[in-house]
Amino acid sequence: MSLLEVTDLTAGYGGRDVLHGISMTVEKGDVVVVLGANGAGKTTTMRALAGLIGRRGSVTVDGRPLGRRPDEIVRQGISLVPQGRGTLDISVLDNLRVGAAVRKDQKGIAADIDRWCEVFPVLARRAHQKAGTLSGGEQQMLAVARALMSRPTLLLCDEPSLGLAPIVVQELFATLAEINRTDGTALLIVEQNAELAMDIANTVYLLEVGTIAAEGPVERFREDDTVRGAYLGY
Ligand code: ATP
């Protein structure tokens, strides 16, 4: 059974559809990247899956219907790293605690805070600072760590590279790949940086004005000149 099965997903804003019936599958432990131009509907897809906007169509997690409320969805093991990070201007530690709001196991929460502070040492160094005082890259790491605090089986990452220096982006993607390898956390990543995302992905979906224009294993997108020329622009 697939971890996430999306069939005919439609969503939009104020009665205007942006997604026109998209279907995609994420298997357990997969790294899936959704590529697409500005305005294709990538963020809308993530927001619909996280319950931040309404949706039509069928979405199942481990064979069960996806909930409607964001907190229900987090409890089902799906956690979003939103575009623009969305860190709160409270301390780094408190941001991490917010990420664990659906959990009650205080010891486990404390252990996970320690773990992510080890993986992202800057979070330990700045534990008591307000998130707003962190650099963009540091805030992105905090946003990822916060999302991981709910112990998701699927992490949704909306343009994690946006506005970050190349070296920081490389480090972040390496860490995401490592988390996927060690914990088996599946990743669904929306990215404009196709090259980088394809380095860690096994499956690619191409989104064009609200529909899936192509999909397949990452090798096909790297090696097929027609696909590359038509969709990736290199
Ligand atoms: P980008 O890389 O620019 O974020 P995207 O693929 O993520 O692009 P979306 O943000 O999903 O695209 O936007 C898809 C369409 O939905 C665009 O036409 C956009 O103008 C529209 N849209 C996005 N957010 C809203 C909103 N809050 N209200 C109304 N329309 C919106």
Automatic annotation (TrEMBL):
Domain ABC transporter: 4-234
PROSITE patterns in UniProt: ABC_TRANSPORTER_1, ABC_TRANSPORTER_2
Protein name from the UniProt record: ABC transporter ATP-binding protein
SUPFAM superfamilies the UniProt entry points to: P-loop containing nucleoside triphosphate hydrolases (SSF52540)
Family: Belongs to the ABC transporter superfamily.
Organism of this sequence: Cryptosporangium japonicum
Recorded GO MF terms: ATP binding
UniProt keywords, alphabetically: Amino-acid transport, ATP-binding, Nucleotide-binding, Transport
